[in-house]
Structure formats: structure tokens, C-alpha cells
Fold:
Amino acid sequence: MLGLTTSLNRDGHRSVVASDPRGVLWSRLGEHGLPRYPLRVRNHLDLLAGFRLRRLVQTGDYHIAHFHTARAHALSPWLRGLPVKRVVTRRMDYPIARGRMTRLLYEQSVDMVVAISHGVEAALLAGGVPPARIRRIPSGVETARFLPNARIRHQLRAALGIAPHDIVVLTVGALTERKGHRTLFSAASVLQERGVPLRYVVCGEGSLRPSLEAQVRTLGLQAIVHFPGFASNVSDYVSAADLFVHVPLWEGLGVAVIEALAAGLPVVASRVGGIPELIDDQGTGLLVPPQDTAALAVAIERMVHDPQWAKTLGTKGQAFVQARFDVSVMAQANESLYHELLARPRS
Structure:
């Protein structure tokens, strides 16, 4: 959202983000001096939020309304009848139930659904969304921001108590069941028993944190696993790492993987959702089955024992995401879609 809004406004468009004034996005928009409108959406049936959104669009002379979360998407029916084109971006690849509500939200209340990966597109099609209403536009990141920084690497490692020669495995994501942290820690235990010396940095917050910390203690990993919490400066942690691991049970695309690849890090990830669209197995990284501790341990160990090969994978992955998944590519694709929709007659 931040990258898209920045790009649109830089190109001369007037893009305003309606978001919860208590959220991180609201703060980040303010830091970047980007236009914002306070809109708290308490639930999918928030009538007040729907009324306020409709009034905002009516009085603001907007041409496009782009929804980026399920809760925001639930407000799309409030804009019916207004001279504004409506777009929703779908980022999750879990199934959509066929039925009246799906038809309302995905056919009657929006003009186009943006799927961020083939996996998300497949879920939409399986849910009965017409192919003509789906456009695939992958998420993008500001790839240049993730280029390694030696000074930050040294400083962050020192702050975490990690020596310059230690090999650091980084993972980034909300501490929830679907992100697969339990599998990573089980693999870390296996590798420790095999005598593979690694340090693990786990960026993120979530309801599962106490349980994960308990697992780390039970496995005797507390000396090598770090939980720095939510990281707004992911690029710093990427600079401090040597290997990136992302093993969710399912994933729409995997922005964290894009960020790691942008830094040239070797990546081990689950073969789920849109991740295979980012990683060519043994070409730009390694893919493993989800929740497969043994396979994950083998993949990590292989990267550690052949650092030159791992570096080659990272270099190839970096070139791939710079060309295909930079925020500029994503923004241009969305902008082209907006122009296409505006050229269509009102339905």
C-alpha cells in the first residue's frame, strides 16, 4: 500500500489512503507525508464506516476506489451507483465459498479483482469469480532498499550479541500458526544435534509468541534464537543475515521472500501458494514441503555447507526480483489497470 501510494503520487496522481488512525500504515503514511483519511472499520458489517466511505468518495471527486483488505472489501457495496470504478486486491490463496455473498462482493460490487499470484487466481476461479474479472498483478517491494549494508550488518549483530563469524538464519512474519515457525524450530533442533552452528533471528509479533518461546526453551535453543519483535526496519535485519527461511503452511505470494531475494540472500521456503512463482527450486533458492522438518533441515544444511553455491542462488534470485517484483513494476501495472477501467463505459 505504501509503495503503491508513493508511486502514484510521485507520478502526479491524487491518491489518498483511508485507514485506521491507530494502525502502523497510518503512521508510515504520515512519516512519508502522504495524504490519508481516518477510517476505522470495526468489522465486516460496520455501517458507519460504509457511510463515511461513501461520503468521502462522493465529496472527493475520486475516479478509483481500491480495496486492499477483506474488511475494506466488505464496504464495496456502499459505493454502488457512484461514478467510481472499484478494484479489490486479493492476497490470500485460501478457498472462497461459492454463493450469494461471493457474487455480491466479487461480481456486483467491484469492477476488477487483482490477484497477487497464480495461486490466488486459482482460488478465485475455484470460488466462481469469472476469469474476465481477474487481473494478476504481483506484489512489489522497493528492491533497492534491501541491498546489503555492511555498517548496519555489524551494528545490528553487535546489538543482538551475534559474532561477525556466526551464520544467521532470518525469518520474518507474524507469529501465527500458518507461518510455520514450529517447523523451523524443530529443524533448528535437528541441526543443533548434528553440530551445525547457527543463530536464528525471528522478526514478528503475534498471539503465538509465548507458545513459540516455550518450544524454543523445551528444545534447548534459547541461546541461539532471538525474538526482536515486530521490525519496521526489515532491511536492516536482512543485511545482518546470511540465509532466509520462510516455511508457511500457505501463502498468497510471500513479500518477505521478495525482500530477502532483493538483498541477494539465499532462501529456503515452502512449496506453497505463490512462493514457487518467486523461487525456481535449485535455481534461485530451495523449496521444501510445508511442515517437513527433515527436508527443511537438509535444505538449510546444504546451504551452510556450500556457501558459494548458496551465494550463486542468491545472486540469481536478486536479479529475478529486481526485474519482476520491484514496486515500480507493480505500481505501473495497477496504474494501467486504472486507465483501462476508466476507459470502459459505466455498467
Remarks:
- The mean pLDDT is 95.
